[in-house]
Amino acid sequence: MKYRNLLVIICLLIVWGGCKKASVRTSQRGTTLPRAITWQPTDIPVTSVATSSQLWSNAALKDSSATTVWSSNTRSDVNSTEWVAYWFNGFHDVNYIKMLPRYDHTGAQGFPVKFDIYWSNGSSWVLSRSDTAFPNPQTEWVILPLPATVNTNGIRIVATKLGKDDYGNIVFQLAEVGAGYDAGLNNFTWQGNNNTNRENEIRSVGSGTFNPNKISNWNYDARNPIITANAGGNSNVYAPYIVSNGGAWNIYFGGWDGTTDGHDRISITVSNDNFLSFNPHALMIDHGVMTHVNNETVMKKPDGSWLMYYTTLPGSPQLNKPAYATSTNGVNWTPNAGSASYLITMNGYPNWSLADVNGSNVIYYENGVFHLYFNDFNYTNTGNAFAVHHATSTDMINFTYTGDVLPEGLVAQDVKKFTYNSTGYYMMALHLNGSFLKYSLGASPTNFSASQQLLTNLSNADKYITSAGYVAKDNRLYGVLYGAGPVSSLDHNAIHAKWLQKKVIFISDGTGARWGDVERAYGPDRIRLYMNTDIETGHFYIYDTDGTTLLYTSPALTMRSGDIWNYNL
Description:
The chain is mainly β. The strands form 11 sheets. Strands 1, 3, 6, 7, 8 and 12 form a 6-stranded antiparallel β-sheet that branches.
């Protein structure tokens, strides 16, 4: 008799003690991380449930307890189908569903790897979202926004690749299910998942209307450089100048674009999708009789005609001077090669014939007046200061020097006008072939304040910044493209980008993990947010382009590797 009792005790120890083997446990045990179930005011009460099978009762799915768990029957193949459905007391707007996994100290047990979420229209199930390669949750509710709000009386979750429990059994297990509607998710919508490892993409977070107090949160483009020279020759392109042209962006640039003769030329590439991709390069201005043509400024005038200014370097004397070209469409230019017949003239600037106007001939046009900003690199011989000089013209060819607008030893690159509270702001970009860009805000085309830091280089690849052009349209500063390279000889440049954007932070409810302090852009309106875990449940916080003004806090939601979100407030 005593041996029979000992055998019973041994068997019970095997069942209760958890001697791990392939067979499923015969008694239900819930999470080893017990917690109180907290329901949000936006959650909709679940009135009934149904499941494809139940090794453990599906009544656990709506008893508001984390320590009771529903389990499907065990399966022999992870690529099996199990499902759970649940209903409400009528039709409700729903824009998120939630699942509380069965947890132990290693994370979720029996949570599916691949599943589809359906909503009921009263007569059939309609697919809302699909998730594949879903990472294993660790401690919190899994809260999944739907791509759009639906009016429904029930939700169905169909798992088509199952997880495993801590015994290795292939099952689908959950402690609780739910759903609800939160108006905050109408402003922050889930767009899908691209399975990118430990990375989220947040869209529509570019800058808004210009505000001089909110131009401090800049993000480097993740692709940097975004434009490189054509293959097959020397690789040295820079001097970007960007013009909005209908729904496209014309990006003009100069340098050695796959050529081998060492002569600078001016080329173009076009982006039709807001800097996500670029068309093949096309030659705009060949060097012609000049050694080089480069450092272009391009404008589309109010009458629809196009005008370009650029520096030319003749064979002798080796002194750069500005020239111009005209076009009806921004592509076909007259002249289409460097020519001494298209040089501008300058009155009032001492020893203009000795001036070396290299890398800087910025044109800004307003009220019938052409404003030219330029630098003279031969200032010791002309007797002028190394500063940003200014001249004006009414016929675009004959200029008159008016004085210096910024008494700093920096090279002017671009000038754009913005307005804020009915006040005009003239924003100049500046560099000095070093590891920084600066900007100056002017109250008028001839009155600029002391320069301020705009950006510094990201790495050795853009250590020497040689040029810059703002990306701007409709009173919005999108960002800046800049030519830069790794060597002080300034002959291995490519075109990089940094975008003025809102700041996005994610903070996990369970672990306090914080993502977003290091961000990268992907074009002007998208941010890549990097994670060092695969899945977290918490809140997104979106700040304005000053990086400090809070614009939006999301409801609690689950962020996983590869998710794509859209902010639309």
